Amino acid sequence: MSKSIQRIGVLTGGGDCPGLNAVIRAVAKTAIHQHEIEVIGIQDGFEGLIENRTRPLDFADVSGILARGGTILGTNNKANPEKYYTGDDEQGEPIFINAVDKCLATVEAHKLDALIVIGGDGTMSCAKPLVEAGVNCIGVPKTIDNDIVGTDITFGFTTAANTATLSLDRLHSTAASHHRVMVCEVMGRNAGWLALHAGTASGADVILIPEIPFDIDKVCAFCESRMTERRGFSIIACAEGAKPQDGEQVVKRRVESSPDPIRLGGIGQLVADDIQKRTKIETRTTVLGHVLRGGPPITADRVLASQFGYHAMRLLMQGKKSRMVVMQKNDLSDVELTYAANKQRLVPTDHVLVEVGRAVKTCFGD
Ligand code: F6P
Would you place residue 3 in the very low, low, confident or very high pLDDT band (cuts 50, 70, 90)? Predict the structure, then answer.
C-alpha cells in the first residue's frame, strides 16, 4: 500500500453523462473515509486545471449526489492542455496556446499527489502530457457512447440506452395510431451501441448504425412492406453516425476548439425526408440529442460508477500509476491510461445483437 498520497485532485472532462457524480462520490468518500486523503475538486474539466479553479471536497460535499445527473464539478469538452483556446486573433482565427505548464502549476500549487480524471478517450489523451511530466493520473471511463476501447462498458451508457428505449416505446403508439414511419435519431458519435441497444430493447423495425452503412432503397422497401401488414407503421432507431452506403456521415457543426471538432447530427431528418419522398408514407423525425446525457443514472450505472470510483482509489493506493479503470468480462481491471486514446470501440457487424435483430426480421438497411 502506498502511504505517500496525501492529497488528490478529481476532475470530470468531456461531455457529461449520468453517473459522474456517483464516481466523484465514490472516489472522494473512499479517499477521505478509508485513506484520510484530502480531495480537491477541479472545476470544469481541464479548463479548471489550466485556470486553477478548484475547491476542496469534504465528505458532506459529496453526500447526497449519488443519484444526481450531470457533475457537481462542471465539465468541458473543449479544453485541451496542449491546445488551449484563448480567443480569436484580429482575423477571427482561433488562438491556441500550450497550457500544460499551467496545469502543472495548479498540481504543484495544491500539492496534488495524483489526479483522478473521469472522462472519455479525449480526456485520457488530454492527461497524456501531464503523465509524461510526472503527474500520476488514474482514469475512469465515461460516455453514453460506450465506445472506449479496453472496457466492455462505460458508465452512463445504460442510462442513456434506457432513456432512448423509453422514448422509442412512446413513439410506437403514436406511429401505430397514425400509420406513420417514425425516425428516432440517437447520439453515439461513430458507434452504433446506443441505437443498437435501444432499438433491440424497444423492438424497432429498422436499426441504422454507422458500422452497417444502409441502402435507402432497402429501408424504403422494408417500410412499404410493413404498411401492408395489419399494424402498418415503422419505427426506425437511427444512430447519429449512420450513413448511406454511397454517402458520408452528416456533420451538424464543427467545434474547432475541441479535441474532437466534429459534431454529428441530422441523418434522421434526411432519412425521414427520403422515405416520405420515395414511399409517400407520412414520416416524422425525433432527435433525442442531449436528453440522453441528462437526468439521474439508473441502478446499473450507479453500481458501475461506484465500483469504478472505488477501484480508481484502490489502484492509487496499490501504487499503480497512469492506469484506466476498466470492466472486462464483469471483472474490474485496469489498462494503460492512454490505451483508449484516439481509438473507438465500434459495434462488430457480427455482434450478437445484430444477429438477434436479423433473426427477428429487423432491417439494418443492408
Ligand atoms: O460523446 C458524447 C456525445 O453526447 C456524443 O454522443 C455526441 O455526438 C456528442 O457528445 C455531442 O457533443 P456536444 O455536447 O458538444 O454537442
Answer: low
